[in-house]
């Protein structure tokens, strides 16, 4: 399993480099590079039974040759099929050769995603087969893998098949009692079947076993970490200090009841016998940063340094600026140092010196804080913002820079409490479930694409009043195979549709960090009025002047992610609005998006999303912003997560250090696990 991927026949250095791009370096990593979905070839259906947004096959008689027209950057090949008065329009991009391949007077099987556009049924980029060729594929399941440019699905599937054929069977490591009670498949069967299932029932069994394993090993690793931290004495005791009262008195508002309660919990932890390990879960705008600053002030005035790690450079700089302003407003003279990757060598050197000498009392930064060059004189408290962006290991790396400092983790990702207790098993949990009274609720609407022109006029009206706008798209560049709004083309379209005096720019994850920072800073400064972006702004800057969030193809995002995006607006004194544009009119989509329309409460949305997601959604929309497991999904697999949590707790009660002989294989498996930098557990 540890052999390099080049040990597989047919994979040379060039192909290995492509595998490295998707995180696969060894045979073991290849085998746990699970398919993201499966292609299931089912019986063709009649035109009358076609359903929008589903992949289906139809039998079609070709009356005449396909027509080819030129459009923008590609050739468009079209065919119109008719069946008992029902019509289906087929379209292919950049495949003009089909004009000579598809013969008039013949019957073919066409297979692809059915869409409803302008009242008619459309199938774009469908596969095509002779009836005999389709018969061979009927009722088979083909794995579909995540790919990168140059790496084909065929190459991955072939490599996986060779790896499975050439390895020895893995010994079963789950205790028999757990396997039987949870009705889990044998490990080797699960591994073979997840890649090459024969039937749907087998696939469900295989997936359940691998999801359980992933959650179970993750929870065991967390519980062991928690035990280790619980045994740690408080090496950085922080007694209450008058300066926190001074800070509270200077605020232009009073803390909410929830904030006061959480601050009491933090003070109790900071001065207690053991080291603090606490998670603050709070919706966007619930005031997590103020509570964290109170803890940092308490630590500093007890003679320690405090560190706050943010997920983006722009956010780190913004945190640094707002902390300085709040401290100055309270008359507290503390040195706040910001450290990010894009700083010059000289700026970094000065920051390192200030941190090591202890001159820097509060240090705010990105991943740059965990570099080897960063040495603290006396680190007493570590705060990480947006927990899911930093894996358990990254958090540990930062805490290792002190003598067991206190750890405070903040997350705006709403997860139902029952799941949070399991997922953040190494942390105590505090919840900020109350928004400040001064905060105006965001007004929401869910609309179809016909509303777009009206939305543009509304956005122009807000801009004329001095406000700013976000527009979120699902993709970066045009993909003719998917009818999704993309950032680059959408920006051009918007410039033509809106007043030319309006400054419109785009932002996406493929841009260089410096370029992204520059755009975000210009938007924060009000120089850009409309920012068209991918979800890269999900954890962005605080722009109180932004009052409109428009999300295109909202059906393509998870509800928790849409709620996070909505949190980019409603941060100032002006009324804010969120427009969810759906490109799909199916009842299920409407039902999901209606949850967002009705509520601004992230915890309610998360629990409702949980109820809606079931076994049929195994390969549906993954929620971004949660710990990303290789195969498990915290929402879809909530039942398996709970079962794994209970099984792990029971096992550790019976054998806390897993020293029994029957747990030898499990012990080996657990020690071979790696907590990835992004929170993944590599199994």
List the helices and strands and how they pair.
Blueprint: H1 13-21, H2 27-31, E1 37-40, E2 55-61, E3 67-71, E4 74-83, E5 86-93, H3 98-101, E6 107-117, E7 120-124, E8 127-129, H4 131-137, E9 141-144, H5 153-166, H6 176-181, H7 187-195, H8 200-230, H9 242-250, H10 257-271, E10 277-282, H11 288-300, E11 305-309, H12 313-329, E12 336-339, H13 345-357, E13 362-365, E14 379-385, H14 392-399, E15 406-411, H15 417-423, E16 428-432, E17 443-448, H16 452-464, E18 468-472, H17 487-497, E19 504-507, H18 513-524, E20 530-533, E21 546-551, H19 559-566, E22 577-582, H20 587-598, H21 602-612, H22 638-654, H23 664-672, E23 674-675, E24 681-682
Parallel strand pairs: 5-7, 10-15, 10-16, 11-13, 11-14, 12-13, 14-15, 17-22, 18-20, 18-21, 19-20, 21-22
Antiparallel strand pairs: 1-9, 2-6, 3-4, 4-5, 6-7, 6-8, 23-24
């Amino acid at each position: 399993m540890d052999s390099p991927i080049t040990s597989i026949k047919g994979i040379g250095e060039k192909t290995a480099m492509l595998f490295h791009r998707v995180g696969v370096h060894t045979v073991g990593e290849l085998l746990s590079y699970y398919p993201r979905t499966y292609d299931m070839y089912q019986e063709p259906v009649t035109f009358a039974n076609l359903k929008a947004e589903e992949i289906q096959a139809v039998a079609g008689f070709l009356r005449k040759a396909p027509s080819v027209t030129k459009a923008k950057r590609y050739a468009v090949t079209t065919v119109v099929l008719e069946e008992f008065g029902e019509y289906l329009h087929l379209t292919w991009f950049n495949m003009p050769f089909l004009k000579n391949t598809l013969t008039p007077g013949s019957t073919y099987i066409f297979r692809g995603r059915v869409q409803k556009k302008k009242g008619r049924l459309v199938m774009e980029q469908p596969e095509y087969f002779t009836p005999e060729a389709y018969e061979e594929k009927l009722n088979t399941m083909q794995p579909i893998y995540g790919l990168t440019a140059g790496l084909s699905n065929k190459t991955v599937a072939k490599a996986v098949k060779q790896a499975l054929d050439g390895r020895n069977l893995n010994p079963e490591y789950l205790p028999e009692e757990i396997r039987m009670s949870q009705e889990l498949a044998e490990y080797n069967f699960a591994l073979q079947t997840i890649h090459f299932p024969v039937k749907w029932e087998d696939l469900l069994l295989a997936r359940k076993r691998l999801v359980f394993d992933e959650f179970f090993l993750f929870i065991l690793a967390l519980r062991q970490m928690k035990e280790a931290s619980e045994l740690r004495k408080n090496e950085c005791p922080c007694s209450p200090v008058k300066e926190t009262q001074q800070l509270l008195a200077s605020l232009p508002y009073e803390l909410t009841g929830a904030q006061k309660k959480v601050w009491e919990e933090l003070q109790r932890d900071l001065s207690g016998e053991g080291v603090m390990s606490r998670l603050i879960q709070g919706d966007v705008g619930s005031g997590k940063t103020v509570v964290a600053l109170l803890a940092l002030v308490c630590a500093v005035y007890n003679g320690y340094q405090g560190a706050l790690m943010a997920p983006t450079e722009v956010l780190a700089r913004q945190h640094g600026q707002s902390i300085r302003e709040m401290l100055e407003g309270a008359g507290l003279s503390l040195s706040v140092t910001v450290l990010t990757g894009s700083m010059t060598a000289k700026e970094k050197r000065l920051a390192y010196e200030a941190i090591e000498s202890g001159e820097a009392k509060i240090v705010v930064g990105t991943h740059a804080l965990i570099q080897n060059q960063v040495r603290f004189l006396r680190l007493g408290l570590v705060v990480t913002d947006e927990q899911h962006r930093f894996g358990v290991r990254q958090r540990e790396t930062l805490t290792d820079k002190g003598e067991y400092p206190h750890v405070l983790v903040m997350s705006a990702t709403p997860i139902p409490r029952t799941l949070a207790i399991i997922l953040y098993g190494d942390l105590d949990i505090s919840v900020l479930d109350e928004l400040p009274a001064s905060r105006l609720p965001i007004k929401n609407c869910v609309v179809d694409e016909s509303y777009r022109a009206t939305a543009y006029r509304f956005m122009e009206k807000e801009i004329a009043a001095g406000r700013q706008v976000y527009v979120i798209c699902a993709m970066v560049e045009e993909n003719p195979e998917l009818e999704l709004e993309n950032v680059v083309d959408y920006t051009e379209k918007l410039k033509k549709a809106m007043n030319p005096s309006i400054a419109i720019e785009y932002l996406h994850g493929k841009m260089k960090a410096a370029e992204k920072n520059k755009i975000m800073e210009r938007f924060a400064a009000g120089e850009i009025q409309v920012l068209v972006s991918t979800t890269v702004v999900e954890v962005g800057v605080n722009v109180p002047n932004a009052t409109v969030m428009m999300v295109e193809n909202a059906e393509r995002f998870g509800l928790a992610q849409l709620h996070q995006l909505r949190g980019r607006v409603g941060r100032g004194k002006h009324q804010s609005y969120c427009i969810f544009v759906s490109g799909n009119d199916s009842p299920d989509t409407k039902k999901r998006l209606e949850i967002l329309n009705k509520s601004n409460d992230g915890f309610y949305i998360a629990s409702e999303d949980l109820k809606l997601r079931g076994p049929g959604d195994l390969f549906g929309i993954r929620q971004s912003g949660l710990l990303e497991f290789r195969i498990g999904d915290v929402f879809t697999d909530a039942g398996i997560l709970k079962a794994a949590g209970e099984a792990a707790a029971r096992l550790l009660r019976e054998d806390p250090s897993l020293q029994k002989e029957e747990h030898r294989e499990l012990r080996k498996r657990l020690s071979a696990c790696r907590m990835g930098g992004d929170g993944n557990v590599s199994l």
